[in-house]
């Protein structure tokens, strides 16, 4: 690709400034410096690179060198340094402004994409600029660590670089939202989100990643994003140990809590009597949680709680006596396990239902 020629307009007045300042021995005036900065800004806005512009200034200096000989080399170099520095300052100022505007535009797009707040037709047009085709289906992965991240965080750059290196131009968007890393990928490219999960887990120092299901259209991105967020919330409330969670594997939990009042009634009626135990309901609720997590194997559950099997069995008997439900009975076990899940989701017994 041929670089655009740099018009002489961006060197207007430079030769005059050289001659005048070198001849008088003075420093550049504030007006002259600001004029050079303004030219640098205009050149940047027109898309001209700083390297080419500096070279043109040096060429102009060389062309003017016979008339500047009397000033001496040191004086000429000092003036050139001042002038080029002012020009470069203006160029860099324009570049920083353009970058801030680009970042603001990208941030606005990400917000609109994940919240679905923009006109869908306009959103689809903007999405193409960032490599997404919203006519297809997309899935969203969300990663959170111990500390919030933003677009300039090293973890963000590390993950994005790894994805680009591995998959190239695959219509992938990596961004941040509310301190979390977010990846949007085509719904039929699960390997992208799996790789993102691996990289994000490492970059965030062992954070947790949730992957939403693929859904079609611009609204599908919002849906998948919300599924991933809900999965992270469930993982925290249920204290799930898995570092990578998939919304499709957690669908039972939204079903269980869809009728919140019915779940609250189940928790209160089934587990409420545990409040009468010495030490309150929490120790016995933890006993049931570990028992179910251990596959209803008393020996393994006792080991996880650092109890003897006899002491653990006594706790199960105590639960049976208080609630009337026997954890060893298959029918009672299902009711108890559902109630335990509901208690964890609803924050009982810390929170009254």
UniProtKB/TrEMBL annotation:
The regions listed as transmembrane in this protein's record are none
Q: Which InterPro entries match?
A: CdaR-like_regulators, CdaR_GGDEF, PucR_C-HTH_dom, PucR_C-HTH_sf
Domain PucR C-terminal helix-turn-helix residue range list: 284-340
Signal peptide start-end: none
Domain CdaR GGDEF-like: from-to ranges: 116-234
The UniProt entry's sequence similarity note says: Belongs to the CdaR family.
Q: Extract the PANTHER family matched here.
A: CARBOHYDRATE DIACID REGULATOR, DNA-BINDING TRANSCRIPTIONAL ACTIVATOR ADER
Q: What is the name of the protein in this document?
A: PucR family transcriptional regulator
Lineage summary: Bacteria, Bacillati, Actinomycetota, Actinomycetes, Kitasatosporales
